[in-house]
Amino acid sequence: MEKGLENLIRINGKAGRDVYEQLNRISPRMARALVEYPFNYIYDDSYMDPKMRETAILGAICALGYAIPQLKSHINAALNFGLEKEEILEIFIMMSVYAGYPAALNAVYAAQEVFEEKGIV
Amino acid sequence: MEKGLENLIRINGKAGRDVYEQLNRISPRMARALVEYPFNYIYDDSYMDPKMRETAILGAICALGYAIPQLKSHINAALNFGLEKEEILEIFIMMSVYAGYPAALNAVYAAQEVFEEKGIV
Amino acid sequence: MEKGLENLIRINGKAGRDVYEQLNRISPRMARALVEYPFNYIYDDSYMDPKMRETAILGAICALGYAIPQLKSHINAALNFGLEKEEILEIFIMMSVYAGYPAALNAVYAAQEVFEEKGIV
Amino acid sequence: MEKGLENLIRINGKAGRDVYEQLNRISPRMARALVEYPFNYIYDDSYMDPKMRETAILGAICALGYAIPQLKSHINAALNFGLEKEEILEIFIMMSVYAGYPAALNAVYAAQEVFEEKGIV
Amino acid sequence: MEKGLENLIRINGKAGRDVYEQLNRISPRMARALVEYPFNYIYDDSYMDPKMRETAILGAICALGYAIPQLKSHINAALNFGLEKEEILEIFIMMSVYAGYPAALNAVYAAQEVFEEKGIV
Amino acid sequence: MEKGLENLIRINGKAGRDVYEQLNRISPRMARALVEYPFNYIYDDSYMDPKMRETAILGAICALGYAIPQLKSHINAALNFGLEKEEILEIFIMMSVYAGYPAALNAVYAAQEVFEEKGIV
């Protein structure tokens, strides 16, 4: 649980803590699941380099098509782990091949919003 | 067109050429699209390192859930580009978080089939 | 047709009638389909207990990922049929396993909005 | 019910009757739903030309990605209504843009199987 | 590239040019892909009548469920190519059978928004 | 871990143990995740009655469309927990409304296969 919370804050910063606290008010059981499973068991850098991990995650969430809030959160995480703006866009451009243009375009627009919020355009 | 065909063979080897030739007999227009768009325009190593590219693609195809033949083809490509067996499995384990266990488990089984075909179990 | 309209109002209350009337102005053929097929043929309590029916529907719409308005409407229906707030949240927590965390989290947030609208937080 | 059964046989021929009879042995309630809703209410040529109807259906089932048996059944129906082999392939080639190459390629291969079964390659 | 841009403007009018210019500021590589692949290679009227092409695209984007902005853009394109308001609605009503009511209803509401913007209700 | 393995065997019987052992040979990390998260944390009867839990899961996996092996495994689990054959079919018939006929029909056929294997037709 502790390691999961540390990871959540290391990866998503203050926004990560806010997500946890909001979720904990709605459903402590869901908040605990999120911290113990993805952020403790799965986000373990001894199994995969964080840049590659975020690369796979960005590809997958883009392909789902419907999860724009989670996509923006992981675009932020990817920037925190050192992925370049151009690399993030390239992941979504590639997704035009695997998931189609609508999913790819909506991800590019989501990335642009994150870049603007962070002033890196 | 030429560069696309070269890429197709570089990435997927003899299986890549077979896919192209089979598709070209069914629909020359689809075969040309495949070679010119994904394999020429998109698979351009000056935009993204091939290992990272395959990492994003494996995450995305796993998340789609329904594309086992394409997943197996990209597991092969990922091995050709130097991704380790354990890294490929880790990508699919992570997908249990983003796309759910059914998609993740079916990808793990597909990976095992490719590993067995290549004798790397 | 009549039984379908009765069911629509029994299940979704005033919001159900509003959906029907709005849809009937846009497309009488779609409004008639909605009333005759889902709300007459399918919503037949002699085939399935309404609480179990809403349980299956909440699992499915959560897994689709993209249908937040319909999810909120069925969270309302589930409450009307006597599902507890904690049971509804548990359905979505389970969906983290079958459809992934993005779909599960967005459903939990949608539930929270419905609970707040109804003052049951 | 009668008009639905007529439509089912008009559209899918002997295979349509077989689907109905098999389904009727498993679940008479599902078989009746299939005949009354899609094949009676929806397949009504006064609302849409059958060639255009099958065009929309082929695009949609291809985009779903997972429904190869239903895709093959509608490729058959499309041929029965006069869509050309090349038009059917073009629908799936276009889907590389909207749903991605894996869905498009698997549909092209499914079409080829139907064309071979009917001897129109 | 030139033919693609012409097609983009022919199909989507001023909104098409705006999409291109906005995308070109975010990612020239994505903007070029969009123009060269879908709008040049795919949108080629010698392979398919534009009304049938938009019919397949509307079915597919409706079935994806998550791509409302792209759906509205293609509802506009379909009207520009001469599809009737009632035909567009009928495509979405049919999708209740192939992709379910949530996807179909959200498409009907999106269509109504486009019809109102264009004053054709 | 222990409670998870117990649950796996209680819910899926010998087939559950086989899945675990096969997965453990391919990826001990994935096998451990499966046992600790879904089968320990999530399958906790103090949060939800097992019949309702399987009802939600069957709705969701049917809606995904692509996960037939997991669907069959949960049809088995649902029968073990006391869901009637007719209730399982009714869940899938309802899914024609939420996920469309292709997903619903393929689930009905999968159910029939499980019923036949168990001799309960």
Interface with most residues = A-B, 30 and 30 residues
Biggest beta sheet attributes of chain A: none
Would you state the CATH class of the largest domain in chain A?
Mainly Alpha
Count the E strands of chain A: 0
**Low-pLDDT residue spans of chain A:** none
Total helical segments of chain A: 6
By CATH's scheme, which homologous superfamily of the largest domain in chain A applies? Answer: AhpD-like
Q: What is the CATH topology assignment of the largest domain in chain A?
A: AhpD-like
Structure explained in plain terms:
- Chain A has helices at 2-26, 28-42, 50-64, 68-80, 85-98, 101-117.
- With 121 residues, the first copy, chain A, is an all-alpha fold.
- Chain A folds into 2 domains: 1-45, no CATH class; 48-121, AhpD-like.
- In chain A, α4 packs across α6.
- Chain A starts with a helix and ends with a helix.
- The model of chain A has no long low-confidence stretch (mean pLDDT 96).
- Chains in contact: A-B, A-C, A-D, A-E, A-F, B-C, B-D, B-E, B-F, C-D, C-E, C-F, D-E, D-F, E-F.
- The C-E interface holds C 23, 26-27, 29-30, 33-34, 37-38, 61, 64-67, 69-70 and E 64-66, 89-90, 92-93, 96, 100-106, 108-109, 111-112.
List its salient traits.
homohexamer, 121 residues, mainly alpha, AhpD-like, globular
Give the helices and strands, then pairings.
The structure is a homohexamer.
Chain A: H1 2-26, H2 28-42, H3 50-64, H4 68-80, H5 85-98, H6 101-117
